[in-house]
Amino acid sequence: MRSASPRPQLRGPGVLHQRYVRRAPEPVTTQAVPAPAPAPPGLLGSGRVVVAFIALLFVCQLALLFEALAPVRVVFRILSFGTSLALLFLVKGPRLKHPAMPFLLASAGLTALNFFHPGTNTPLAAAAQLGIQISVFAPLFWASRLRIDAKMFGRVVLLLFLFNMASASLGILQVTFPGRFQPALSAMVESQGEGYVRSLQFETASGARVFRPMGLTDVPGGAATGAFYSVLLGGAFLLSRQGMSRKLLGAAGIGIGLVCLYLGQVRVAAVTLIVCMAAMALVLTVSGRWVRLVTLASVVGGFAVVAFGWAVAVGGDAVLSRWSTLTASDPSQVYHSNRGRFLDETFDQVLPEFPLGAGLGRYGMANAYFGDNTDRESPPLWAEIQWTAWAYDGGWLGLVCYPLALLATLWWGFQVARRRDDSAGEFWLWGSLLFAYDLGALAQTFSYQFFMSQMGMEFWLLNAAFFSAYWNRNAALHAHQR
C-alpha cells in the first residue's frame, strides 16, 4: 500500500511562479574561521635592524674622537662596512626590486673586473676596495627586505636628524667657547703639516684662534655636514603633521644648522643646501602645496638672515670675508678654482690614461691601510672627488653606471613626492625629503668621495627604508584602493 505523504522532491503547482536558485551545500559549521595572523618578523626581518645599524654608525663615528682608542681606530673605520656586508647575507625577506639595483650591480661588476687589471695593487687592497664599494650600497639590498612601515621610517629620520643637530650644536659651542669642547684632531689631518693645519683655523670676534667647527667628527669643518642635514631634515619635520612639538624641533634644527654652517665656512655645503631647498620648493610647487611652500621659504629665509648675523658676531670678519667670496665672483668660477679643477683633471687626464679603469687598491682608505706603495708599476693615486674614484674603478663605463643608479633613485622619489593624494599619509612629504636629499648627495659627488664613505651608506640605507615602507603600505591596501 502506497504512503499518503508526498515525495519530498516534488513541489506544488506554484513552482512555475517561483525563481529557481541554486545553492551551494551548507558547510558543517557556520561559524567563520579567521585566517591565521602572519607570524611577526624576527629581529633580522624587522625595521629594528635599521635603527640598530644607524646606532652602530654613530658609535663608530664617535669612537674616532677618543685618543685612547687610537690604536684600534682602523677597527671602527671598517666595522660599519663589514656589518653592512654581513647583513647582506643575514637579512631574509621578500626581494624588492628598487630601480637603481641593476645599475649598482653593473657598477660592482666593473669594479670586480678591475681586480684583474695589471695596475691593481695588492690583492688585499683590491679586495678591500671592492668590499667598500659593495658595502656602501648593500643597504639598498638588505634594508629593502625588512618589514618597515611609515612609523618606523619616521623614527629612522628622527634618529638621523637628532644626531646631526647634536653635531651642529657642538660645532657652535666649539667656536663660542674655544678649547672647551674640542675633540682630538685627526692624525691624517696632522700629517699634512703645520701650514695646512693652520689654514683650517680662523680668528673669532673675541681674538681667539680656533679650528673650523668639527662637531662630532675629528676633521675641521666636519660640523658642516651635520649642519647641512640638520637644516634639510628639519625642513621635513617643519612641514609634518605630527604635532607642534615636531614642528618646533624642526625649526630649531634649521636655526642651529644655519648658524653652524656659517661658522664652518664650508661653501660647497651651503651651495648644496640651496640646491636641496630649491628641489623641495619645486616638488611643493608641482604638487600644489602652496601653504607649505610659503612656510618653508619663510622659516628658512628668516633664519638664514638671523643666523648670519649671529655667526658674524661670534666668528668675526673671517666669517664675513669667507662668505662674501660667493657673491664677489661667478659661483662657477669659485667652484672651478677649488674643487672644479679635480673634475677637469678627471676628464682631461685620468680617463685618457685609464679608459677602462686603473686597477684596484690604489687610492683612498683601501690603499692607506692595505696597499703596498713601493711597487713602481702600481703607484698610489689621489681621488679628491667621487667622479675621479669612479673613473679609477671602471673608466668611462664607471662614470655611467653609478650616476644612472642615482638618477633612477631621484626619479622614483620625485614620482612619490609629486602625488597630490594625501590618503597615503605623509609619504609625499618623505618623498619630497628624499628627492632633495638625493639631489644633495649627487651634488656632493663633485666635492668629495661621497659614495666611498659612511655618508654614502646612510644615503642608500635611507632610500631603502623608504622604498620598503612605501611598498609595504601599498601591499596592505586592497586592490581598488591602490
From TrEMBL:
Keywords: Membrane, Transmembrane, Transmembrane helix
Claim: Glycoprotein is one of the keywords in the record: no
Signal peptide (residue range): none
TM segment ranges: 49-68, 74-91, 126-144, 156-177, 219-239, 248-264, 270-286, 293-313, 396-415, 427-446, 452-472
Record has Membrane as a keyword: yes
Entries under InterPro entries matching the protein: WaaL-like
Source superkingdom: Bacteria
Name under which the protein is recorded: O-antigen ligase domain-containing protein
